[in-house]
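User: I want to check something. If I give you two sequences, will you return the structure for each one separately, not as a complex?

Assistant: Yes, each is folded on its own. Here is the first sequence with its structure:
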Amino acid sequence: MRYRITFAAGLAIGYVLGAKAGRARYEQLTRSARKVADSPVVQEVAGLVGAQVGNAGRTVYDKAVDRMPVTSLRDFLARPTDEEIEFVEWESRSSNGTQPRGGKNAPGAGEEN
């Protein structure tokens, strides 16, 4: 509640001070801001920053794709879980005769419910 009162008080003070400054001051601030924004130096810097942000975004995207190469939700959902991979490996070992079926090393054999 204290924050709401503080916010409301700040809003009221800003409104009163803004109303006293009037339209002339608003126009002066607007002209100054436009002059700065239209400056060739500011335009050049804005272009460089925009290019760097674009390059950084592409770099982040490329790194994310390298770590998690998922092209669609369907691809992601089609991936086997760790448990499924373990079961398939266990099943292939047991069918080759290297491990008996239902042995103590069966997936989930050591887990308690």
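And separately, the second sequence with its own structure:
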Amino acid sequence: MSRIDAALLTAHATGDGTTMMRLYTQAAAQAKSPEATAFYLTHAYVFALETGHANAAALHQRLVDAGCEHPAGPPRPPKR
């Protein structure tokens, strides 16, 4: 198990979304395939959104640039 994998398990166990966002971003940088990069970036983006982290916009742009996300962002729920 890699150092990042072990740290991700700990972060998930403690519910530390900011650390998960950071670690998934690091894992994306070290990924060996475009699919793995997209997987890790997607997780980083989700945790950035959940925690209101300032990196959310940059992570979204990376996903757009990789062709994995729509430029307008995720769909918004309908207004009630």
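Because they were folded independently, the notes below concern the second chain alone. The chain has four helices and no strands. The CA atoms of residues 18 and 51 lie 6 Å apart.
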